[in-house]
Amino acid sequence: MLWEITPRGIPVAPGVTDEMLKPDTWTDLCRTPDKVLMSEEEISQFNDETVKKMKEVGLERFMYDIRSFPRIISRQDVLELMDESSSEEVISARDLVDNNGDEVTHKKKERLVEESNIKNISAVQKTRFGILTRRQDLRAFPTNELLTRERGAFDVDAFQLTALSLGTPVAVVHESRSGDWTFVQSPLYKGWVRSDSIAFVSGPEEAYEFLEKEPFLVVTASTLTTEPDPYDASVSCVFLQMGDRVPIAAPRDFEANIQAQGPQCCYSVLLPVRGESGMLEKRTGLIPLSADVRIGFLPPTRANVIRQAFKMLGERYGWGCAFGRRDCSRYIMDIFRTVGLRLPRNTRCQEQGTAGKTIEFSGSIAERLKIADALEPGDAIYMKGHVLIYLGKYNGSHYVIHDGAGYAVKEGDKIVPVSGHSVFVMQLEQLVMSGQRTYLEAATSAKRFLQSS
Fold first, then answer.
1. Which string of b and e fits 21-44 if b means at least 16 CB within 10 Å?
2. Among residues 28, 31, 191, 393, which one has the fewest Cβ atoms lying within 10 Å of its Cβ?
3. What is the C-alpha separation between 453 and 395, in angstroms, rounded?
4. CA 314 – CA 309 distance, rounded (Å)
């Protein structure tokens, strides 16, 4: 069978039961589920060590402090920033198809290069800094058009790099020919965002002052929006996702408009807004008390990690965080953001460039099973290009939850790939989609981000 059906009628991966879809099933298996494993000081030290390690392994561009960005940059500096993902050479070398399945012509690629405005990069320019006023897709080229590397692969946008949350500080590097797009360096990576999403600030310090302002709310839901405001679209239905933090504000004075929503039974939060001059303005939005948020970070416990992981159960996989969703590594990143840990964006960086304990996977299947036996719930398991969260051992099998493409099953002599493209629970011993080996056999290492001293 490609999947099993639980008594509730829910399709699940082989070996998964209704009970396994509840976080309490797994927290109950933890030895000390609610033990606080790290102090605020230890979390800060973890984050500092991760930044240091990312530099040591040459991956600092994926965890960048905008405050260190040069105040003056040259044309060559800009070209080097664009070289990895956004250069003329990159797009020329790619075979791409559009949404209709037609091959992208050389002429169309030239138009994208023209919109990139490379010819008009200044010889020397002063860096401007800003803050994002809403969640933004970070694009390799200045377009929202869906272009893929394979016909029919509409869910894998070749230009989708990642998504940046509201409040993200950016260094403004270059503007597209139309002015609709701006090339930025962000803490996670570099690429194009919509120009009207940037509120300019006096310098990076002002951007970080907003980002790090206290007290603050942390979004512990998968996603949420601020309350609708028909009188101010800039703070109405603003999209936030797990791990985002927003400063708490004093309640607004609503005497000027008796029709506006009052602050009763809501958190008042400061939101960054782009003013008429393009500069940062701060306005107040509302998040209801019923929303899944918290003042400050969650305690760093294994139970909290598992509970957060299950809040995205069943959500669609989003390559590069497309569709307002997540891919495998952003899933991990957002979970651990809620407890205050800063992880880089992609799997290679998380596996190679983070602090915490590394547990290597190697050897025979029997040896790998022993390694899995020693894992703790909430540990991250890495394989090439993918990451999963370990849940625990149940009836002799090891279980994981992940935001993944799927798995494979054997039907007689055939290997049948099964699409998931979502957050789901399965056995670590399940076959990968190619059917060539199991996830257990594909594992390269595990990371224990939460560990008591």
1. bebebbbebbeebeeebbeeebbe
2. 31
3. 31
4. 11
Tell me if 453 is assigned to some domain: no
Nearest one of 325, 157, 200 to 184, comparing CA atoms: 200
CATH code for position 422: 3.90.1720.10
- Using DSSP's 3-state secondary structure scheme, residue 88 falls into helix
Helices (H), 35-191: 40-56, 75-83, 88-93, 106-116
Same domain, yes or no: 322 and 424: yes
175 and 227, same structural domain? no
- 30 — phi, psi (to 5°)? -70, 145
Q: Which tokens hold the place of 109?
A: 């690629």
> For residue 360, what are the domain limits?
4-59+300-448
Q: Residue 51 CB: number of other CB atoms within 10 A?
A: 19
Contacts of 87 (CB under 8 A, 6+ apart): 79
Domain count, the chain: 3
- pLDDT tens by residue, 425-452: 999 999 999 999 999 999 999 999 998 8
Q: pTM for the full model?
A: 0.95
Q: Express each pLDDT in 8-35 by its tens digit.
A: 999 999 999 999 999 999 999 999 999 9
User: Between the CA of residue 369 and those of 17, 358, 362, 441, 453, what are the distances in Å?
Assistant: 22, 17, 10, 9, 26
Element containing residue 75 per DSSP (H, E): helix 75-83
Give the pair of three-digit tokens for residue 338. Answer: 């809620």
pLDDT attached to residue 251: 77
Tokens, residue 369: 């099973």
Residue 3 contacts residue 418 (beta carbons within 8 Å):
yes
pLDDT digits (tens, 9 = 90+) for 105-131: 889 899 999 999 999 999 999 999 999
Q: Are residues 307 and 382 in the same domain?
A: yes
Q: Report the chain's C-alpha Rg in angstroms.
A: 23
Count of all residues that appear for the chain in the document? 453
